[in-house]
Amino acid sequence: MPVIDTQHDLDTRTLTITAEFDAPVQRIWRIYADPRQLEKIWGPPTYPATVVEHDLTPGGRVHYFMTSPEGEKFAGYWKVTAVDEPRSFSFEDGFADLDFNPNPDLPVSRNVYTFTEHEGRTRVTYVSTFETAEGLQKVLEMGIVEGATGAINQIDELLTS
Question: Which residues form the Activator of Hsp90 ATPase homologue 1/2-like C-terminal domain (predicted)?
Answer without folding.
Answer: 22-159
